[in-house]
Amino acid sequence: MSESQPSRTELERLRDILYGDYARDTSVQLDDLEARLATFRQELLTRTSDLDQAQSDQLEVTRQTLEDRLGALEQHFTNRIDNFEAQMAEQLAKMDDQKANRRELGRMLVMIGQKLQEESGD
After folding, report:
1. How many CB atoms lie within 10 A of CB 13?
2. Which residues contact 55 (CB under 8 A, 6 or more apart)?
């Protein structure tokens, strides 16, 4: 190196003299910003996790509510179907009884007719 050109260490020393305080302040500010950013990221992750958990809890409550309602509706319609089947069975039994009575009445009429024929034939 020539004597007219400053050495590398001299340049660094000169820079430190001229910009040292500014560089240190900037470095401190950057460190502070990085620390605040890390805190913000952690807080954001925590809040996001809390929100995810809250949504998951709410979804579970909603799912359980819907299952309960569905179960109640299923029971309601099962009861209605059972009642309807019982009513239909009762109606069919009545119709069978009425049909049996008609048959019995028909037999009785036939018997009366036969007796009348026997009496008129006597």
Report:
1. 13
2. none
Contact 1, 7 (CB under 8 A): yes
In angstroms, the Cα distances linking 63 to 18, 49, 56, 113 are: 68, 21, 10, 74
Q: Do 17 and 9 form a contact (C-beta atoms < 8 A)? A: no
| 16 — pLDDT class (breaks 50, 70, 90) | confident
Is 100 a residue whose pLDDT tops 80? no
- Sign of dihedral through CA atoms 2, 7, 10, 11? positive
Q: Which two tokens stand for residue 21?
A: 């305080």
In one-letter notation, the amino acid at residue 89 is A
Encoded tokens for 110: 């036939």
Asked whether 80 and 88 are in contact (CB, 8 A), the reply is: no
